[in-house]
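input
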Amino acid sequence: MKTHRQFTLRAFTLLELLVVITIIALLASLAAIQIIRSLDDANRLKVMAVVLDLKSDIDAYHLEYNRFPIASNSASGDQDAPELLTDGSTPLVDALLGIPPSGSGVRDLNPKHIPFSSFPVAKNDRYGLAGAARPYKLTDLWGQPYHILFDTNGDNQVTNPDVANSDPKISQNRASHLASRVAIYSSGKDQLPGTADDIVSWRSR
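output
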């Protein structure tokens, strides 16, 4: 004689379904947060690489010409020249690329036309050489120019932007100057200079 076992199937209650859905939603949100964080970290590393390359390229230019790739290397009084942007307002990027000036009567900042730098072409004006007109612009991943400080008064130091940073963890106990001839930074994802997410050449974060 065969014995038949009867299996009883119990349906999920509404409460159990809500608990399962809540757990799945929580796990999905945690995964999304981690993915966004990983993407942000990857973007910071990409921009940091450009910042450090740009600083190295300017140092190489200075070694070759004993000057910076700007129109005037002299400061007024004891102060360094004002902060410069790679927004196309100066031929700095063109000079680093080794491209002759486009206009007549414009000083050629790189008369040997040495290509100190190589940058990709920006997509949607982000991350690379942007704009059709010369001088070229150089933008970060968020479409903003890089900020550059030069030691034009020859004291081997530049003003430390961290002193005015809005994040007290960064601004507190900072020296007023950096022991460097060049300092470069990106304003980061928030596109605001002087905030916690700035990507700078003088510290790792």
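quick obs: The CA atoms of residues 90 and 201 lie 21 Å apart.
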